[in-house]
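From the thread on structure requests for the teaching lab: each student submitted one protein with a one-line request. Submission from student K.M.:

"Model Capsular polysaccharide biosynthesis protein from Klebsiella grimontii, tokens only."
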Amino acid sequence: MNSINIPTVSVIIPVYNVKDYVLQAIDSVINQKVKPFEVIIVDDGSTDGSGDIIDANYGQIPFVKIIHTINQGLGQARNEGTMLASGEFIYYFDSDDLLMPDLISDFIKIYKENPCIDVFAFSAESFSDESTSDANIQKDKLPVYERTIEGVYDTGCNAFVKLSQNGTFFPNAWLYIFKKSLQSDNNLFFKRIIHEDEEFTPRLFLKASLTVITNKKYFKRRVRAGSIMQTSRSEKNIIGYLESINTLVELKNNSTGLCEKYLNVRIRQNIVHIFSILKQSNITLSQSTNESLAKVLKGNTDPLVFIAKYNVFIYKVAKYFLKRIGFIV
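Reply posted by the TA:
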């Protein structure tokens, strides 16, 4: 730790074709009340001029590093930035969203109260992009990322269980600041898949010790046309969920008690995501993906998964009533 006992935070920002949003997004990081130790911007092969915008506006700032790579996807862009990071803590930020100005300053306060902290988990809010038709989305239809609970937990597993019990465990990487050594010591890097957070964040939690949760909102997620979560689905989405399921199964097999139980819930949720995509999209899966899906289903005995395979709506109804009577978590 540095001499004045202030934690250093490396903010890593992958950028890909977001020229209309990138300045506002990065400015919200640069203009924190307390500046980040460093900001690492990874231009992931942008073709819309985003890379030039970054160079022109941030290339002369001493604590900003900019690298340009071929397009490899969000996860690998984060990995590239992580390998350059020299801060004691890592934070992954998305280049079309916004950061509240007091994230870094508040994290420093929390660190001073909890100097052994591994993971800091916080809340977020969503807003629709005013420059697109998404502005018509009703506020109550926007994704919600509120923890609704706060606390300090001695292990990431206990924090994972508490958040899962509360229905507020969110895998999104931009909801966490975490110790870099936790990541490097346990080889916690991103796979080259879509939905990479679905398997990364549970791995992170299960390796973590002291974890602090706050309900305060520090992140504003922009809901816009063209983002990963708003575009049409493809086989890559299915593959991403299958890869995540395989990781979650491995974690479950090495866990016990409530942690094992809630990992099984996440496995079920990922399988249901696959069924929903197949139901809503006209996707023809390759033989290898079909075989991978069949293998996952063969190894899963959850009766709710069986119901979801044939009717996702009935699955949702059944899950609701089974939770009400305490039959499932």
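TA comment: DSSP finds twelve helices and nine strands in the chain. The mean pLDDT is 92.
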